[in-house]
Write a structure and sequence with these properties.
There is one protein chain. The chain has 8 helices and 10 strands. By secondary structure, it is of the alpha/beta class. The chain folds into 2 domains: 94 residues, no CATH class; 143 residues, Rossmann fold. The strands form 2 sheets. Strands 4, 5, 6, 7, 8, 9 and 10 form a 7-stranded mixed beta sheet that branches. The protein has a 3-stranded antiparallel beta sheet with strand order 1-3-2.
Length: 287
């Protein structure tokens, strides 16, 4: 009887410890709206509004859709995806264009023919689901947790934290938001005030403890914390990104080197999706 009581007490203590760790690592709630976009929608940049420039990018759009819906960034390593991409047009439900130079007068004799456009492609959800099933995959339909990105940027002698509201880092913020949309991952960048309230700076971030990170995440609506840094490598003329995701399963770390910051941020969001959708660990990349 005494042994049974001790076992029961130990089990309860372990459960309490687990729940405490869960709150400590992941943050106790996520009040952000989640991903509100269309998982079966992708985009590409094309020249003009014509078939000869649209058709060649549909294959990549399909690959992006398969990654976005499944959460697996490596799904196109399956050789069967190549054949699917070649037939991408038959899976397209609708497409539309947006002039990237909207509001800028036409200033050449070619008119709109060579202007850049955002091509938005919507695929049939049931057809994408069928392709995933054929690949032994399935849609990641569970509510996707918000990634609270706490990022230090170092460019030569200048360092700063990327925020959701400051003028500094505007292009990087737009790029990060684009990467989040491309992967179907809800993402938030903390406000300047959230960093100030926590006393956080780019210099302090590498040694920040979990309590400080959790405070920033809670001030941002909650979610899973991803701590990162990107630094400009003048010799290689590229950025090095270093990412660490703090999830229920523990801490996950990966890097990418010698890329532009668009590619660095895609690595961030695709790696996060890979981990949280149960598709293993992201691999380090050097390009």
């Amino acid at each position: 009887m005494r042994l049974e009581f001790m076992i029961r007490t130990l089990s309860i203590a372990c459960l309490v410890l687990f729940l405490a760790l869960l709150l400590w690592v992941v943050v106790d709630r996520d009040d952000n709206p989640g991903f509100t976009g269309n998982l079966y929608q992708t985009k590409a940049i094309v020249t003009g509004e014509r078939e000869e420039t649209r058709l060649p990018v549909l294959g990549q759009c399909l690959r992006d859709a398969l990654k976005k819906v499944s959460g697996d960034p490596d799904i196109d390593h399956d050789p069967r995806v190549e054949g699917m991409a070649e037939r991408a047009q038959i899976y397209v439900k609708t497409f539309s264009y947006r002039d990237r130079m909207e509001g800028i007068p036409i200033h050449d004799e070619q008119g709109t023919r060579d202007r850049p456009y955002d091509l938005t492609v919507d695929f049939y959800p049931e057809k994408i689901d069928e392709l995933l099933q054929a690949l032994g995959e399935k849609p990641w339909i569970a509510r996707r947790p918000t990634i609270v990105v706490i990022l230090a940027v170092k460019y030569e002698a200048r360092s700063y934290l990327l925020t959701g509201d400051a003028d500094e880092g505007f292009d990087q913020r737009e790029s990060f938001m684009s990467a989040a949309w491309l992967t179907g991952m809800p993402m938030v960048l903390p406000s300047t005030n959230a960093f100030n309230e926590a006393g956080m700076t780019a210099e302090k971030l590498p040694t920040a403890d979990q309590g400080e990170l959790t405070k920033i995440a809670r001030a941002s609506g909650g979610g899973i914390v991803l701590v990162g840094s990107i630094a400009w490598n003048k010799g290689m003329l590229g950025w090095k990104g270093d990412w660490q995701l703090h999830s229920v399963g523990g801490s996950h770390h990966w890097q990418i080197e010698n890329v532009n910051f668009d590619a660095a941020f895609r690595s961030t969001m695709r790696g996060s999706a890979q981990i949280l959708s149960g598709h293993g660990e992201p691999q380090d990349e050097v390009q």
